[in-house]
Amino acid sequence: MTTPTMSSSAGSRFKSLPVISHLRMSSGLQRGMLVAGLILCAVFILSALLAPLLAPFGFAQSSDASGDFPRQAAPDAKFLWGTTSTGYDVFSRTLFGAQTAIWVILAAVVMSLFIGVLLGLISGYLGGWFDRIMVVLADAIYAFPSLLLAIVMSIVISQGQSSLFGGIMAAAISITVVFIPQYFRVVRAEVMRLKAEPFVESAQVIGASPWRVMFTHLLRNSTRTLPLIFTLNATEALLTLAGLGFLGFGIEPTAASEWGYDLNRAMSDATSGIWWTGLFPGLAIVLTVMGLTLVGESMNDLNDPRLRRFSRKKAQRITQSAQSGADK
Amino acid sequence: MTITSPPGQEVSPIAAPKAKNQGGGFLRYLITRFLLIIPTVFILITVVFFLMRVTGDPITAAMGGRLTPDQLAARIHEAGYDRPILIQYFEYLGQIFTGDLGRTLSDNRAVTEVLTTYGAATLELAINAVIVALLVGIPLGLVAAKFRDRYPDAILRILAILGYATPVFFAGLILKLVFGVWLGWLPISGRADWETELTLTGLQSPSGIYWLDALRSGNMQAFGNVFQHALLPALALGLLTGGVFLRLVRTNAIGTLGREYVEAGRSRGVSEFRLTTKHAYRPALIPIITVMGLQIAMLLGGAVLTETTFEWSGLGFKLAEYLTARDFVAVQGIVVLLAIIVAVTNFIVDVVAALIDPRVRY
Amino acid sequence: MTRTKNGLRLAAAVVGISALALTGCTSAAEDSNSGDSGNSSAPITLGTTDKVTSLDPAGSYDNGSFMVMNQIFPFLLNSEPGSPDPSNSLAESAEFTTPNEYTVKLKSGLKWANGHDLDSKDVKFSFDRQLKIADPNGPSSLLGNVESITAPDASTVVFKLKVANDQTFPQVLTSPVGPIVDDEVFPADKVLDDQKIVEGKAFGGQYVIDSYNKNNLISFSANDSYAGVLGKPANSKAAIKYYADANNLKLEVQQGKIDVAWRSLTPTDIEDLGKDENLTVHKGPGGELRYIVFNFDTMPFGAKTSDADEKKALAVRQAAAHLVDREAIAKNVYKDTYTPAYSFVPQGFTGAAEPLKDLYGTDGKPDAAKAKKVLEDAGVQTPVKLALQYNPDHYGPNSGDEYALVEKQLEADKLFDVDLKSTEWVTYQKQRVTDYPAYQLGWFPDYSDADNYLSPFFAKDNFLSNNYDNPEVDKLIADQRGMKDAGERTAAIEKLQTMVAEDLSTLPLLQGSQVAIAAKDVKDVDKTLDASFKFRLGVLSK
Fold it and tell me: Is the complex ipTM more than 0.85?
């Protein structure tokens, strides 16, 4: 997992980074699930990074020195996972698909994080009519079926063009629009709560500017839940991207490899009993989402005192290390 | 839609209105909350109206490959799509206020007819899916809580995550492969065989919900056929939601199983089974009701992928079609309905939440 | 009267079935097939992924709607199964009485299924209404040559034409603008709702619609009052089931839930179904043409580019024509559900020639040496940069594969450097006219005449708007329409194809075949797969 750097206020050293601290806190099955999730995520990130090295062919390559690739060929020694109806190598496309997925996830989550957090901060801090409008607006967008919003946005943004950058940005922006209200809501609620805390009031009394109050005092304290939302929204981003691709509003096959699109094309193969064109990209989606979800859910459980379960000794150790971390 | 509320997220409450002056009480909250439905629906209509106009017009979509640019322009002018967009917008608003949703542009039907015909199908799918989700989610959630952090719990949780992680179209592809191609046991598309559909739509004042119609007319053979068709889509969508339910029941049951009164019951010698089903179950149900409200809204609003995968001719399925045809009248009509359903469901959920826990009303 | 009786009978049958089902036996709708219409063959079910826009002829201009209209509405002229040529249907005679007047005499005693009289008033009403409504989704533009319509008596209709001796006019009467409608049911100034048409029983074709569930299921039964050229249907009942997804259609025909699958299965599915011993793949000539359009202004060396040079631009088009390998595309991408097209007029039409076979490549195969030479001779620097556009969602999902292969073929000998892009349909239609130097399009004819492949494309100000303007071609296109002598007209059409092949305003690639997959026990499917491209439910039986 890419570890979001904004974490607790005091002494954020390696050990208190979200995922790492959770790992240390966990035990037994909970640890097992967290580790399994981390492994799946690692595989996902590695295949994205190393796709150009690992993949035997390009994602849109349908011939080599020895001639055209066979179409819809069953898996064999040369084409480990078979070929598609276009003659692309399924294995290579699945690997490269991780690249596209990771770009979209990063772009979508980072954009929505920035805009959502910013709006949440301002709205929560300032209050008044601006806040009310923002809340109603966020509610309205939240009520809209997210995939449909993403479809409409992707048509508007890309104007149906098929370029790699355009495709990725269209997918990312359409997902962003759907996510902003979620971040907005979480941050705003935190800010509303924190606003009444003494340290904010004292800062205001000293005469700190609203921006300073917002960014130094409120931001740091209100973003504690964000790493969790990050992993969850990463899965949603991936599923939305795949959904867009499946419905034919995604990225074209020659511009980038995208699992949802491959599944779309695989539907007609499946009805003819050709299983390999759909199975592998599908499994790639399932395993990646599972990995992210396992990490997210484990973190959630460990954050929730009702669900956290570890020995007293271990708890003591953690408390101590946290304190010593704070002392430094 | 695959994008249900993610398993890690608690009930995401629709932000409650922040009444500045305290002390309005429940009625006041009720009214403010109800009035908020109006701007929500209004904003959605507006957003959809302008977005749809940006994406192009239905005439180019239908005729672009046959007519000269001049002929196209003439037809677009005839239909009035080249007029200032604000005029069109206010015209549309006026039309809606008179209750007229217009006629679809791409297949010439009254929008209200589209809504009732396909709405019934979506409702049927949603009901089926909720039944599956409840049947799966609640018992298994209790089991998971009971065996918390032991193997049954781990397996169930991983299954729940698997349910969430599998996009419905991938599930559809696998199901088609297994049941449609290799085994041939279950139908993988449509709501009924054509003979059955003919019989059911020919009934007097059909409800449009096929199994209901089949039961009302006492046609068990038709019911069997409808049941077969409903099975796979209901499972695909239901298991997705079931995973969310499972997780919620587990979390809440764990919370309550540890409470004093359960412990007290245990010390009084109440059986473990009774403890799990009665004592821990009741309180765990409250968040379920809330989430179910949200889920129903989502099922209704976003069954696009499920409906498309299984060719279930409901609102989501038609919406995707109308979007491709740039049929803004139809898209707007469907969105208005969805917006109202979602807003009203959220309203009910909030009110229920407020009734249960007065702290929500701040 | 018979109609009401049948309706009652159907209702009774349905009640009966429900009663039977209560006691737990027997199957559903098939039992209701007990009409008194004589022929009692089993009902035929056809599945399709086409869509109905509107049953009202004034409100739709697409294959899906027209296919249904052809079963339920009468035509003055229609083509008999097996032939693309118009023959008299409602008409007893139809001919040019003067160069500008086309006179149709109706058969006597014609009736609509609802009992209303069918006479010249209905005919005049039908065409006047098309022109008056001119619906954005309608086909009224096909009546461009009609000045006025008169009905001097109950059995005579006179069409006054702007262009004399228009040889395509009889074909127009068989086209999507040609169905005759009941003037007592249809309004004169607006498109009628489908359900109202069904309620009004405004049918005059081979069939009437018994139940109508738009874009889901239509059930038909034979129309006893039909007196047109198609005759009595071979089956007394039929149904059309609509699918959104081709692979669901494929599975259902394979599982025997429907009898015939018609338009549009994927090549993979067709190939797979061909191996199924319970099914037969029927193929007929196809009118669909797939081609690349060159924009004469914006293509390399085009008139509005910085290095405009007509000769070099022509050389670029010719080099492309030398390089494309149609057989490879047809075989690899479409598994031979399409065939190579070496002309602008598909094979099977009167006057179709294959000029591109002689002019470019060698024996229909690509020839890189010739391409190289033509570019060198014109002094064109290679590789030529060419931006090529295709559309992924309108002409079937295989367009992407098709154009990936075209790109590869053009680039194979380093003569071209192709920049391949795709764009979603609506944007594509807006941009193609101005922005794309070369792009994909497809065509499905309005009626079965070679002219429908020439004038919309190569006359001045055509729908392509690719700035192609050859006055000689323009004149010959206008002239051949008015040639009364069939031989002379055929020669002119052949000559036109050669002239355009030299200019290469478009580069035809493939011609589609009509493919219907039917269960083994369905008879006479091949009869309807002719060059009229009209699927007639009435010829099928089992």
Answer: no
